[in-house]
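STRUCTURE:
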């Protein structure tokens, strides 16, 4: 039998102290009945003998210590999952906010979930196509991977997130594919942008959206990614779907975590963030992956803005430790009109070699990727040299690399937010650009592949350049 308590002794920020409790467990769901008749939901954060610390979803404002009633539900916060979630939009706490009918859940699931047991993991090695050349070709995403996007202030990471959500798919049409999109701390305009983008393009028909607004209580942001991952795990492991989870902006999530930590009067760590920030982030990121014996998979693209554009800040720093690479957006490319402004040189997908090659993409994928990277790096060096010493200091080969770099940024990177290139279009474009260079410079490509794919009239053009 559930007990009701009227022993609230303190409220500070989103936290409530309840004394004289019995049989209460960590993470237990709490129902808070306020003196006005309003009901709020909470969750047990900490137990100290007969005292419980409860975090209140909705915030602690308006709570009357004398008249507020608290009921511990004996179970954790849960989310009702069903295949009918697809095509629907929810708020940050999992309540339907699209005006549609209620969903009858197949089951109720604990939103906290668990990280995948390393012994049960299957290695990620299957290609996911985003339609963006700099990701598909240069920093390939594979099923079960977690590949974050690091953005700076003012950069269009929201547009990139929407583009990936619209365009992402698997090459095998027989596979079921779904996108779970979780937005945390976004403005009303950004929320409308995502919703309109999904609906106008039809992407909503295979998507589940969770939107936490900037004016929602910060404490709710801590639940949003957990609920989104709970929905993704159900679709992946119960419905055998390949699910891509896009979470933006993880910086807002970490700020909410810092706010709760400060309210609990915990000793702060780096930059005021709690010392368990790494552990907390890992409980989210490690819910991605493939499981042996299961057909489905959960792939993650967390997006975060780097405070002060500092990649050594605790949020990107710890995210980089946990995940398998990073895609970095660049201010210089953005100022030059390149969209999306992805800088391929510092970007990295540690699992890209596992998802490429014949039978997965195409036989020339890895070779052209390495050659493009090398040529672009040399072209950037030539550009810096020209700035310091002038064009006269460049050799004929340097000028070819400089021409390659300019066209690489203009034609390959700068594809816009509405262009959806499949991997084969991207590879063909790569060969067009590499044709600027003579064959003798293509030292990272197998000779047989050069004979097969190098444009026939390109050698003459490059020699005459």
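SEQUENCE:
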């Amino acid at each position: 039998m559930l007990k009701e308590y009227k022993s609230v002794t303190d409220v500070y920020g989103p936290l409530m102290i309840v004394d004289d409790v019995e049989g209460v467990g960590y993470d237990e769901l709490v129902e808070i009945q306020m003196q006005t008749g309003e009901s709020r939901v909470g969750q047990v954060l900490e137990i100290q003998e007969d005292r419980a610390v409860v975090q209140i979803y909705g915030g602690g404002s308006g709570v009357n210590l004398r008249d507020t009633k608290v009921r511990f539900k004996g179970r954790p916060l849960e989310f009702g999952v069903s295949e009918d979630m697809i095509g629907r939009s929810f708020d940050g706490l999992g309540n339907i906010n699209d005006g549609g009918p209620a969903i009858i859940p197949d089951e109720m699931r604990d939103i906290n979930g668990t990280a995948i047991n390393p012994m049960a993991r299957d290695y990620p090695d299957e290609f996911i196509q985003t339609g963006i050349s700099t990701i598909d070709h240069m920093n390939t995403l594979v099923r079960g991977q977690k590949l974050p996007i690091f953005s700076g202030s003012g950069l269009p990471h929201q547009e990139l997130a929407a583009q990936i959500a619209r365009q992402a798919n698997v090459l095998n049409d027989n596979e079921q594919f779904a996108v779970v999109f979780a937005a945390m701390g976004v403005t009303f305009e950004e929320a409308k942008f995502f919703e309109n983008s999904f609906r106008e393009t039809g992407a909503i028909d295979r998507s589940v959206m969770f939107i936490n607004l900037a004016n929602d209580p910060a404490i709710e942001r801590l639940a949003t990614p957990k609920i989104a991952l709970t929905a993704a795990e159900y679709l992946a492991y119960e419905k055998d779907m390949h699910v891509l989870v896009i979470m933006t902006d993880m910086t807002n999530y970490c700020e909410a975590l810092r706010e709760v930590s400060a309210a609990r009067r915990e000793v702060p760590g780096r930059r005021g963030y709690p010392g368990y920030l790494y552990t907390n982030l890992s409980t989210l990121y490690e819910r991605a992956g493939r499981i042996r014996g299961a057909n489905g998979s959960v792939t993650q693209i967390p997006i975060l803005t780097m405070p002060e554009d500092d990649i050594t800040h605790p949020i990107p720093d710890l995210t980089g430790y946990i995940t398998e690479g990073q895609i970095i957006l660049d201010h210089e490319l953005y100022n030059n009109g390149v969209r999306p402004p992805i800088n391929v040189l510092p970007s990295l997908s540690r699992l890209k070699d596992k998802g490429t090659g014949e039978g997965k993409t195409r036989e020339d994928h890895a070779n052209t990727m390495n050659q493009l990277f090398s040529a672009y790096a040399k072209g950037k060096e030539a550009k810096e040299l020209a700035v310091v010493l002038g064009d006269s200091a460049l050799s004929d080969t340097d000028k070819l690399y400089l021409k390659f770099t300019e066209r690489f940024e203009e034609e390959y990177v700068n594809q816009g937010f509405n262009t959806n290139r499949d991997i084969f279009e991207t590879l063909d474009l790569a060969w067009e650009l590499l044709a600027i260079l003579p064959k003798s410079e293509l030292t990272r490509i197998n000779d047989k592949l050069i004979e097969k794919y190098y444009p026939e009239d390109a050698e003459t053009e490059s020699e005459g350049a």
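REMARK: The longest strand covers residues 39-48.
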